[in-house]
Design a protein that fits this description.
Blueprint (H helix, E strand, L loop, with lengths): L1 E6 L4 H11 L4 E8 L7 H4 L13 E2 L10 E4 L5 H11 L3 E4 L9 H8 L12 E3 L6 H5 L3 E3 L3 H14 L10 E6 L14 H4 L4 E2 L6 H15 L7 E5 L6 E8 L6 H8 L6 E3 L17 E7 L4 E8 L3 H15 L16
Parallel strand pairs: 1-2, 1-4, 2-3, 4-5, 5-7, 6-7, 8-10, 12-13
Antiparallel strand pairs: 8-11, 9-10, 11-14, 13-14
Helix pairs in contact: 1-10, 4-8, 6-8
The protein binds NADP nicotinamide-adenine-dinucleotide phosphate.
């Protein structure tokens, strides 16, 4: 069995990781840690886990690791994650980091997006950006995976196959995206209070949300091989989980784009291209590690892509486990389901 630690186990992504690890045939949860909740029983802070590891005590983030930990998931806020990751790597652990701390090989982008210099610049060169379907080989041979952000996952998966062609006008891509409130994490904030969010929808993060740097950096690195601008407006909407990205595209021969996507993802268990003209909804992917993609052609030069993920699964814990499976040469689908919960 692979011994696993979850840092940030009292948060939403941490809770999802623990649920997935519980169902993984080759992983065993050995260590959990938290910030303010350190010292409490896991069962006390996570209502969802039943008796599974309920008696584990949440360690302080700096406490010594339990014996036999081979793999750590760090689901901590950006900035706080980097030092923990450095310590874990030094102890010989392999790490999947769910924060933004290692997603930017271009450290200027990290500084511009997060308003501070990178806390561990030397480590960024060994991190592999964990967009699983695009980086399998590199993920399999690294000790540090930077798990992608939820919005970038929902945008890059549908966009990259088209960016690799010469059909897309790369200067005319616009992304409008929506997220459920679990995307903002469990720590209380005024903007996610019931009274502020219920019956309301709001744009935020403008003029330039942090994830725009990540989308642009990896659209260039994995897609078009040149700097690209992707204007992006996120919205928070009154639902618990789910993310929908609407991507407006301009270029040549859009009627051929569905086939390009369909071919690229034909053998992927966690990316589904819907029949031409059919559009996905967040309800169809909730609880699953799937990204559903739809495309509608508007006219000879314009099309709209729509993609949906569960922000806590393909957007966070699910993709993190998919990456861990790749790191340890396990079945990539182990512990993960492409099926959602419905209704
Ligand atoms: N939510 C999503 O949909 C999503 C998607 C993709 C990526 N992510 C990323 O995943 C990470 C976790 O997100 P989340 O939504 O799970 O956040 P969250 O619900 O707010 O949980 C954060 C976790 O980190 C712990 N923590 C906070 N500050 C800490 C510190 N200074 N030292 C040690 N532990 C600390 C918290 O412990 P206490 O509560 O005990 O203080 C909690 O366990 C973030 O980097 C986030 O950007 C989240």
């Amino acid at each position: 069995m692979i011994g696993v630690a979850v840092f940030g186990a009292s948060g939403y992504a941490g809770a999802e990781l623990i649920r997935l690890i519980a169902g993984h045939p080759e992983m065993e949860l050995r260590h959990v840690s938290a910030g303010r909740m350190a010292g409490k029983r896991l069962g006390e802070v996570l209502p969802s886990i039943g008796d599974y590891c309920a008696e584990l005590i949440l360690a302080d983030g700096t406490a010594p690791l339990a014996d036999g930990v081979d793999l750590a998931f760090t689901a901590l806020p950006h900035g706080a994650a980097a030092a923990t990751v450095a310590r874990l790597l030094a102890q010989g652990c392999r790490v999947v980091d769910l924060s933004a701390d290692f997603r930017h090989p271009n450290l200027n982008n990290y500084r511009d997006a997060y308003g501070t210099d990178h806390p561990q610049p030397a480590l960024t060169t060994q991190a592999v950006y964990g967009l699983s379907e695009w980086q399998r080989e590199a993920i399999g041979s690294t000790n540090l995976v930077a798990n992608p952000g939820c919005y970038p996952t929902s945008v890059l998966l549908p966009l990259l196959p088209l960016l690799q062609t010469d059909l897309l006008n790369c200067d005319r891509i616009i992304v409008d995206a929506k997220s459920g409130t679990s995307g903002a994490g469990r720590s209380p904030k005024q903007t996610t209070l019931f009274c502020e969010i219920n019956e309301s929808i709001a744009a935020y993060g403008l003029p330039r949300h942090r994830h725009q740097w990540e989308m642009e950096e990896w659209a260039e690195n994995l897609g078009c091989n040149r700097p690209i601008s992707i204007p992006f407006t996120p919205h928070i909407i009154p639902m618990t989980r789910g993310m929908l990205a609407t991507i407006y595209l301009h270029g040549n021969d859009p009627s051929s784009w569905h086939a390009i996507l369909d071919q690229r993802y034909a053998d992927e268990p966690f990316v589904r291209v819907l029949p031409a003209g059919q559009l996905p909804a967040t309800g169809g992917v909730a609880g699953s590690n799937r990204c559903d993609i739809g495309i509608v052609v508007r006219d000879d030069h314009n099309a709209v892509l729509v993609s949906c993920i569960d922000n806590l699964l393909k957007g966070a814990a699910g993709q993190a486990l998919q990456n861990a499976n790749l790191m340890f040469a396990l079945d990539e689908q182990s512990g993960l389901s492409p099926l959602g919960v419905w209704p």
